[in-house]
Structures are given as structure tokens and as C-alpha cells.
Amino acid sequence: MSKNLLEQLREVTVVVADTGDIQAIEKFKPQDATTNPSLITAAAQMPEYQGIVDQTLLEAKKDAGAGATQAQIVSLAFDRLAVAFGLKILQIIPGRVSTEVDARLSYDTEATLTKARDLIAQYKAAGIGRDRVLIKIATTWEGIRAAEILEKEGIHCNLTLLFGLHQAIACAEAGVTLISPFVGRILDWYKKDTGRDSYPAAEDPGVLSVTKIYNYYKKFGYKTEVMGASFRNLGEITELAGSDLLTISPSLLAELQSTVAELPRKLDPAKAASLSIEKISIDKASYDKMHAADRMATDKLDEGIKGFTKALEDLEKLLADRLVRLEGEVVASH
Hints:
The protein is an alpha/beta fold. 57% of the residues lie in helices and 11% in strands. It has 15 helices and eight strands. The chain has helices spanning 5-12, 22-28, 37-44, 50-64, 70-90, 109-125, 141-152, 165-173, 183-194, 205-219, 234-238, 250-258, 269-273, 284-293, 295-333, and strands spanning 14-18, 32-34, 97-100, 133-138, 157-162, 178-181, 225-228, 245-248. Helix 4 packs across helix 5. The protein is globular and about 70 Å long. The mean pLDDT is 95.
């Protein structure tokens, strides 16, 4: 009997679940899992995860002390919630979970370092080693510099909101563990910019971007792993079969699982080694110049940071509202 696409994909690529939904992770049994502020916010609103949210809030209230304001309690709970979801996910998967630094710190190297070290300390206190956690940071110049320092400390990083080759090269030169180029968001930008409704999978601008990054890394022997992310359709995934990792939403994982067809490997280190590619060295001046010249990367990085910031603000409001209800329930029970 023929294998489905998901089974074949797993033979050439590490499959990662792009979700904060623990039940979906249990269903598809990925190697790794990755979350972001939008996914955590969505999961925190699901009835089945109310217990995690409530427990995190009540522990934060207790640890914040008697005189703590609502804002202080929410801030503490907010910092712990992503780790609380990460710990639940790590009970299911054999590999690593990605946990994101507050997107509002994306242009502040020192604040990013402080937050990343705090997240790792929380995991350590729960008995989780550094080998099972990736700290997720937006691919700004400041974020890349923070990741370079963290990697030297043995804290592994996943650089997210990555849209251009200049970002990818800077990450590789900084010794980053893993990058997450956003395939679907690149496609979204080109469709809007050109007015086209669709692209054939092999000509999809997001697919072409990740293929170029993958080939560059393999050609020059960089150890940084490429994990394609943010997919809009099945074709984008099948065109990137062979990428080091792919992080895929539960709906597309289900589609891969239910589709029986041949899946040829598209990305291959041996093929990349034979390509003629020019090596580029990146410093801040060249990064800034290439970033400014790439309208798509400039637009999508800015939009992505704003989008994650909005999700974080929504989550803070959700936690504040829930805290009021919990405190009301405690008063009522007395």
C-alpha cells in the first residue's frame, strides 16, 4: 500500500507542529513543536486549556505577594504562560519546543538577552535542559546579535519572522541553531503587490526564497538549520520536501496525512554543493542596505512584529479579565 504524504515527508524532513493546541500535538506526534504569541493567545481562549491559564495566574498572584497590583500579577503570569504551555508540549514530543521572547523587545538586544535567560531559567527550574528548548527571537539586527551571545552561552535560538537572504546569512554567521523563513507570508506579500491570485507551487515566491536560503547554507557548510514556516497550501510544503525541518499547522498536517501520492525530494545537500553561488559577508551596514532594498522583507518584518505585539496585548487583556473573575470566585467561595 502507498504511503501518505506525511509519512513520506517524515523520511526526508523533521516535521514540527505549528500550534499551541496540545490535543493537535498529541494527534500528529511531531518531533518538535513551535508556538508564537498568536497561537498561545488562541490556545489560552480554548476551554480545554482554562486550567493551565488559571493555575498560572493563581501561582503568579501568590508569588507576586500581598501588595502586588493586578498589572504586576498579569505581567508575571504572562511571562510564565508560554513556558507552562511549553512544558505541557514537552511531555508529548520527543524533541524541542520553541518559546518566543516578547516581540516588543525585538529592537533591544539587552532586553532580549534578559528575557531569554529568564525563560531558560524557568525551564531549568521545571527540570528541562537547554537541549529541549529553542528561544524564538525576531530576525532584526538587534535580535541576531542577542542570539549570537545566547548561542555562546549554550542557549539555542530559533530566529523567526525571516523573509530575506540577508537575514538568513546574518543568522548563519552568528551561529544561530535554527531559522524559520515564512513561506506563506512571502506569498501573501507578492500576491498583494502584483495583483495575482495564485502562483504554481514551483514558482511560489516563498518556496523560491527558502530554496535559495537552503542551497546557500548547504553550499557553504553552515550548521544553522532551515525550518520553513507559515504555509498557505500543500504545494508549498511538498516543494520544500528535504528541508531540514518544516513547521506545519494541524489543518495542513491532516491534509498531508489524508493524501496518498508520490513525494519526490526537492531540497538536497548534495545538489546544493554543486551549485554556483556567490558568498556574501554581512555586517550591519550591508544588512541595513540589503534590508532597505528588499521591500517585501522590510514590510513583512515590521508587520510581523506589530502582529505579535497585538497578540501579546490581547493575551495580557485576557489574563487581566480572567484574574478579575478568579478573584471574584475566591471572594464568592468565602
